[in-house]
Amino acid sequence: MRVLVTGALGMLGSVLLPCLRPEHQVYGVDQKDFDIGEESAVQASFRDLRPEFVFHLAAYTDVDGCEANPAKAEQVNSLGTLNVARACAEIGAGLLYVSTDYVFDGRGNRAYREDDAPNPLSVYGITKLRGERYVQALVARHMIVRSSWLYGPRGKNFVSTILKAARGRGELRVVSDQRGSPTYTRHLALKLRELLAARVYGVFHVTGSGDCSWFEFARAIVQSGGYPRVRVHPISTQEAGRLAPRPAFSVLENHRLTECKLEALPHWTEGLAQYLEEGWPGGEFGPLEPAPSKEALEREVTKS
Prior knowledge:
The C terminus is likely disordered. The two termini are 37 Å apart. Strand 4, helix 5 and strand 5 form a beta-alpha-beta unit. Helix content is 42%, strand content 16%. The protein has 2 domains: 175 residues, NAD(P)-binding Rossmann-like Domain (Rossmann fold), CATH 3.40.50; 93 residues, UDP-galactose 4-epimerase, domain 1. Strands 2-1-3-4-5-10 form a 6-stranded parallel beta sheet, sandwiched between helices. Strands 6-9 form a two-stranded parallel sheet. Strands 7-12 form a two-stranded parallel sheet. 47% of the residues are buried. Helix 2 packs parallel to helix 4, helix 4 runs parallel beside helix 5 and helix 6 packs antiparallel against helix 12. By secondary structure, it is of the alpha/beta class. The protein is built from 12 helices and 12 strands.
């Protein structure tokens, strides 16, 4: 099948492309190829490549950045997705759109199912939800995959930030009152490939099994990453002082995977173990990399 992946150089796209290539003719596009906010550029690329199926991963995922620059968030996450959906509809391509747990407000105390009503708190969540609506309205063969707390071998993420901080400091302060499911991009990429093969459509929640707080996740990272003496202290979301509001409880129940007789992703601790095995030492956290400044680490660790 001719498959197109947007956001091909990103954290998820960079592992999805090699995952798809053994079975499909895969094309990857990113910012260098066209501005996703330009409808004519998107349509021209789609007409040229003529994909049968599109994985739309391109997004502005900096949650606080979206809050500070809502016009950019709207241009990329909402209008960019509208342009991709229109282009898919024009050529009759199927579409898988990766969305987020941040479409929910996190005010409940049970895992969200796919049919629970979204109520995003942040600009990021609002613009990603608008993207979902465009996909549902315009593309008959669509999959919307909501995932959460992604980390992987390419790009900045919470795990690499904690490991860098642990190497440079003896104590860390991490938010303890937000709960979700860490998801390893390699595990997610395999499941996206499986969804394409299964030809099942609609909304899916796909996350690492189990759940934890950012604080619990950070403790597991320093223990498993070889820094057992680093002390991790819990702080509140208010103390972290982030610009954008976050859902306190954004655990997603992977209900539709079960309905479609598809297995859940491995437990988040298995994903963490695999990530550390592949990336440490000598990978992006290699011993020759200088430790960041205390101020930079403080910003990143409390960012979550």
